[in-house]
Amino acid sequence: MFRDRREAAEHLIDRLSYLKTENPLILAIPRGAVPMGRWMADALNGELDVVLVRKVGAPSNPEYAIGAIDENGRVALEPAAAYYREEAVNREVEHQQALIEERRRRYTPVRSAIDPRGRIVVVVDDGSATGATMAAALTALRARDPRRLIAALGAAPPETVARLEALADEVICLETSRDFRAVGQFFADFGQVEDDEVIALLGRNHG
C-alpha cells in the first residue's frame, strides 16, 4: 500500500528517470492523477497536461465502466454495453462528452491541448480497474503520432495490464493484484482532488 499519491509518483519517477533528458510530455487523467503528473513532470524535466477521457458508466450503475470517450468524441464501448438500452447508453455518452468539453474550458482556458506529435508521452493514472479509460487515452494519443507512448499506473489487475500492453510501447504498473476491488485499496490516503487544485497544478511552471 502507498502512503498517498505522492509516494506512488515517486516510485514512477524512479522507474522513468531515464527520461530526464527527453523533455517528456506527462499527460494525467483527471482528476486524481493530476498531482502525480505534476510531481512527475517537475522531476523528469517535462511538461504537464491532461488527457481528457471519461468513463462511460452503466445506466444503472455509474461506477461500472461499460466504455470510455475521448476528447475527440471517439467512443469505445465494452462488450457489457450490449446489455443496456442503446438510448440510455447514448445519453450517458452525451453527458460525458459535455463534461469533457467543460473540463477543457476550465482547466486550460488560455491554451489548447499540448500536441503529442513526435514526443515521448507518459499517460499517468493512480490506478485502473478495467482499463477502459486508460485504453481510450492511449488509443486517442496513438493516432496523434507520439514518438513513444508509455502508460504509468499505481495499481491495476493483471488482465488490465495485459490489455494496456497491447496499446502502449511500455506499461509501468507498480502494484498488480488479482485481488483488485478498487484503486483506493492501494492508498492509505486517497483523498479527492478538486478542480481548483487541478487548475492550479496545470498553471504552475516547472520546479
UniProtKB/TrEMBL annotation:
Signal peptide: none annotated. It comes from the Bacteria. SUPFAM superfamilies: PRTase-like (SSF53271). One of its GO terms (molecular function) is glycosyltransferase activity. It holds the Pfam family Pribosyltran. InterPro entries: PRTase-like, PRTase_dom. Keywords: Glycosyltransferase, Transferase. Residues 9-181 form the Phosphoribosyltransferase domain. This is Phosphoribosyltransferase.
